[in-house]
Amino acid sequence: MTYLPKPKVRHPSLPRNALGLTRRDYEGALSTLCAGCGHDSITAALTEAIWSLSIEPQNVAKLSGIGCSSKTTAYFVSGGHGFNSVHGRMPSIAMGANAANRNLHYIGVSGDGDTLSIGLGQFCHAIRRNVNMLYLIENNGVYGLTKGQFSASADIGTKAKKGDVNQQPPIDPVLLAMNLGASFVARSFSGDKAQLVPLIQAGLRHRGFALIDVLSPCVTFNDHEGSTKSYAYTREHYEPAVNADFVPFEREIVADYAEGETHPVVMHDGSRILLRKFAKDYDPTDRVAASSYVQERLRQGEFLTGLLYIDESQKEFHELNATPEAPLNSLVLPALSPGSRGLEKILSRYR
């Protein structure tokens, strides 16, 4: 797929960060996602967070797998490094890159399918190894690129486009991450920029694996079989010159509510979810209490948002493996070679 760059037009009075750069310097290609997609709201939050932290674009490494979510890395910080991996294998690439160069800011963008289905094992081991990265899940409960099948995060009772009802319990990524010992766990909503931006900033500053599960509405839920307005029906009954999908414009779903409150959000398909922000006295350093509270609110049909859990005492990947301070890709050959005596000592361990 060809990505079109955004026009480089800058108003002279645009605010600048500590590096003298504007927000436009942190943008990427034009989005090819559906109009109103929550993923684009997450892109805007990422752009804002990285710009406001005055991170140099060339020091950003963006990684993703396969899916609608994985296109996001093309839409922010065009001057950074980027890599699209095989489906579900982004954590391994992030781990290898991080091992080679610890001086970059690693941002992994994944989806609920890419993370909780084919990539579940990779996700778990990235947490276990406490890889120093920000891991964003753009969670919409469906496989958007393959026309809306249930993903592993779909709630019981969710209806598919063809009318089937999901009967399987979901995998909750924040509960899974806390059970695996993740040192930074948060959840947010794509339309709540006021909450999401500071969470991203905190995740980028955290030393270790920082997970943010972002509930992100999909605007194509109503393109189901049997509808005379569906793309498939149109192709079968008309003779177009070319096959081109038209996705009707939908407005971005936003949310603005106070700490400690529960806020209903109506999705594009008419369904409703309940978001609840933490009260000010919530303690995010108690893992057991945090896990219990998340489960308690889920039983009430509410998605708890905010910084769910943080532990700043855990050793991150490089500390655990005693790697040198200098990035591995900057070490010269003499520093990498153990010499004949050193090699003999290493080999003796395996005899």
Brief summary:
By secondary structure, this protein is an alpha/beta fold.
What descriptive keywords fit this protein?
17% strand, alpha/beta, 9-stranded mixed beta sheet, two-stranded antiparallel ribbon, Rossmann fold, 351 residues
Layout of secondary structure:
Layout: H1 38-52, E1 60-64, E2 81-84, H2 90-100, E3 105-111, H3 112-116, H4 120-128, E4 133-139, E5 142-143, E6 149-150, H5 173-179, E7 184-189, H6 193-205, E8 209-215, H7 231-237, E9 262-266, E10 272-277, H8 287-299, E11 302-310, H9 317-321, H10 333-336, H11 339-348
Parallel strand pairs: 1-2, 1-3, 3-4, 4-8, 7-8, 10-11
Antiparallel strand pairs: 5-6, 7-11, 9-10
Number of domains: 1
Parts with pLDDT < 50 across at least 5 consecutive residues: 222-249
Number of helices: 11
Kindly name the structural category: alpha/beta
Radius of gyration over C-alpha positions, nearest whole angstrom:
22 Å
